[in-house]
Automatic annotation (TrEMBL):
It is a multi-pass membrane protein. Its main location: membrane. GO terms for cellular component: plasma membrane. The keyword Glycoprotein does not apply. It comes from Mycoplana azooxidifex. This is Ca2+:H+ antiporter. The chain crosses the membrane at residues 57-79, 91-113, 125-147, 159-176, 188-210, 245-263, 283-301, 313-334, 346-365, 372-390. The keyword Nuclease does not apply. It is found in: Membrane.
Amino acid sequence: MTDPDTMDPVGDALRKERPGIAGLVRKERTLPVAVLTMLAFVAYGDRLSSGLGNPVLLAVLFAWLFGVILMAALSVVRHADELAERLGEPYGTLILTLTITAIEVVAISAVMFHGDNNPTLVRDTLFAVVMIILNGMVGLSLLLGAWRRPQQRHNLQGANAYLGLIVPLATLSLILPEYEPTPSGPAISSAHEAILIFMSIGLYAVFLMLQTGRHKLFFTNHHPSHATTHTPAPTPEHRPSGQPLILHAALLFAYMVPVVYLVDHLARPIDYVVETLRAPMALGGVVMAVLVATPESISAVRAAIADHLQRSVNIFLGSVLSTIGLTIPAMLAISHLSGHSIVLGLGRTETILLVLTLAVSMITFASGRTNVMQGFVHLMLFFTYLLLIVEG
């Protein structure tokens, strides 16, 4: 019989959380799939892409690449979530958003370089990301999170800090260029391009210093002005795994390698569908946006369901801010260096939808509390965006 005095509940819990080599291999079974797929395209990529004229092969190739990249990206998010639990907010969320931003830049660049010059690809992708996150992700998170409780709380100062940068950066990046006369048409001028790059990077750098330093409490549930705010207990899916921190960092990088390589091959079927089959030009941007937004969407929705709305707010508002504040400067620099022109200004219909989305988002996060109705409103705007794509 076991002596109760010798029992170690803490040690038992840690041993249960350390799955060992066999458990780690089972949990990371996506990695060999991603690596083998990458090796297959290293050896036979050109041969596989040469048969895109066959509709069956086109569909199989796209589904294969998209599925593997998405699974690997989800694993990136899983390890970023683990780092978030170990490091605490907002550092973990920063790792997540910066990693996804890197995937986004690589994905857009791959599609832009493979086919004919599509100057609106960057604009379409960024607009799609904003619509998917601020309407689809926010709407679903608020709806499911508030379904079993009257309302959820978040730190108002943090949401205001995010929106205080998102609104001007989105306006200057996606709206103003359409109304700026240039000799080459709607393309952004060189002066505007330089100002936008330095302003976006500068503002984002200042924001990071505030988020990780003086105003760190704005992005948690423990701000003094919210002393009575309910802080939910950790849920099973967010409990630390017990594995070394360096292992999660290494696995995050290991999953990033096949993602970066395979997204270049995913650009080929996308380019074929858009240019050869005459699909809507915005389709390439939507596919890239779905690829980069889905992992964060799943993480944010899970956090909202578990009553961790503050983490959801950090994820979806941080994603939009990093998309505008980092992806746009990166793509402008790549465009300048590669000679591929890009158009950032939205059309009239898209501009109205963007302004409406930003206005509704400010109202949604204005009180520090959210409810089911706000989730429905954001989902309505998301379905409106999908309808515009179909009609286009």
